[in-house]
Amino acid sequence: MNARYAVLTVDPAAVLAQHRSLLTKPWQQRAAAIGWPAVIAGLFVFSIWWLGISFGQIGPGLAALFKFIGLMFPPSTGGHLQLFLKAMGETLSIAFLGTLMASGLATPLAMLAAKNTSPNGMLRFLVRRLLDVIRGIDTLIWALVFVGVVGLGPFAGVLAIAVSDTGALGKLFSEAIEATRSRERETIVASGGTGLMGVRFGLMPQVLPIIAGQVLYFFESNTRSATIIGIVGAGGIGLQLSEQIRTYDFDQVAFIVLLILVAVATIDWISAKLRLAIIGRRQP
Amino acid sequence: MSTGLPALPERRLSQLLANYRRDLARQRFWSLAMLAAVVVLVALAGRGAEVEPGKLLHHLSGLTSYFGRIMPTLRADHLTGDLAEWYWNFFGWLKLLFDTVLIAYLATFAGMACAGTLAWLAAANLAPSGAVRWVVKRLLEFCRTVPDLVFALLFVGAFGLGPLAGVLAIGIHSFGTLGKLFVEAIENIDMNPVEGVRSVGGRFVDVVRFAALPQVLPNLASYSLLRFEINVRASSIVGFVGAGGIGQDLFVAIRKFYYTDVSAILLMIIVTVSIIDVFTERIRHRLAPVESVG
Q1: What CATH number is given to the structural domain containing A196?
Q2: What number is the ipTM of this complex?
Q3: pTM of the model
Q4: pLDDT in tens, A77-124
Q5: What count of other Cβ atoms lies within 10 Å of the Cβ of residue A208?
Q6: Residue B65: inside a domain, yes or no?
């Protein structure tokens, strides 16, 4: 009773003045709250100036873009349905074979790169750096290189995806292998098995579901990348797409984009089902 | 060693063995079926993709000699001269690389700004209307499924050759991917502050500003930085179709077989990408503790 009365008599302004320091943030925080957005916005303005982007470009560009979009409706096959379907099949083939080859190449490399299966530290270091370099180069650059080596066509695309994914999958596989328990392998070796048997019966059962999930995930993402490598001549639907864009046949562009969206959604759906089945079977 | 395992009765043993054999046979059957399916798919895909192992073997020497040829000739006795010849256009490429990084920055900024504005409308826990949420989600899906290079091709046609097309193409793709991540981050927030703001009469904008944003800001910043790393890689590619950056020069070098230029530009790209990776990773690690406090 007494306490409540006391609170009411106190002047709010005085309380505020007394505890101002609790309510204001330290100057570093205030400086950061103003400074970071300022730096970000300043860099934005600088980039626009440096790249010579003028806002005058945007108006006519948007007008042209809307014209393109208008021309996209209704989507039409332009009488090339069979050609487009064949190209889409080529894209899916490239993604499938590329992923399969990459997982085949990545498994032994991952064994060499993982701490617990690598026979020697020097080799491990070299393999890891090799994987880093492969991963550092984009799929599209690999595609261009392989077009130069094996000529135009989907085969170059398969090789490009196989090589560039070997880098990524090799790293992921080696991490999966490093995360396994060592007991199973030790048990097998202790009961008279060879080191190889330890890997086959102690290690593989632990990593296979993880590897299978990652391979399926990469198959999904490769379906997307296989749609664009055709732009540099490495086969698949990308070639048709870039041709139709260059000749301004936008109704056919729209059809191809729709075809890609449907194909990617279908592959995503199938691979999500398969992944669930794999995980489900391993966790009864 | 004389203490053997207690022997099981014959009937029990034979039953166990039969069960084991049946299970094993079933497992083998499925493994073989899977293997057969893969083999059939490989054969089909091999026909579709015109794979010719003979061609690969034939060109294998071409592949190794390609990597041999892109290697520069560096001799110890006049290293500086050789280096200067290898990197004859060092400053030109450096400028193009700088362009590439700025394209990635602008694209990340644009994607982040759009995603940061629209993600609130697509999060299940905050969305004011189901219809708006559905539309925004489909829009994000579309932007992330169409590859950025396809957007780049279209925009080069509309806006002309140059970095603007690249910025817009990568920006739209970033909008799609960042939007999805932002929505997921927002859907995982603690709802108590949201209820607090609503209970004192806050509108949607107030809920976003005072209840949701402070919780997710470190996450959004971290995702955007990660996207920036990815976008630097993407912006070194969009030049292939004429959308600015170093890609144009790399494309020309590979296509016209200027072998040593290829390795020079690739090395510069790899070094730049790894410097940026290290740099952004540092910032992201500094953001992480904030995440755990907030």
Answers
A1: 1.10.3720.10
A2: 0.75
A3: 0.79
A4: 777 788 888 888 888 888 888 999 999 999 989 888 888 877 788 888
A5: 13
A6: no
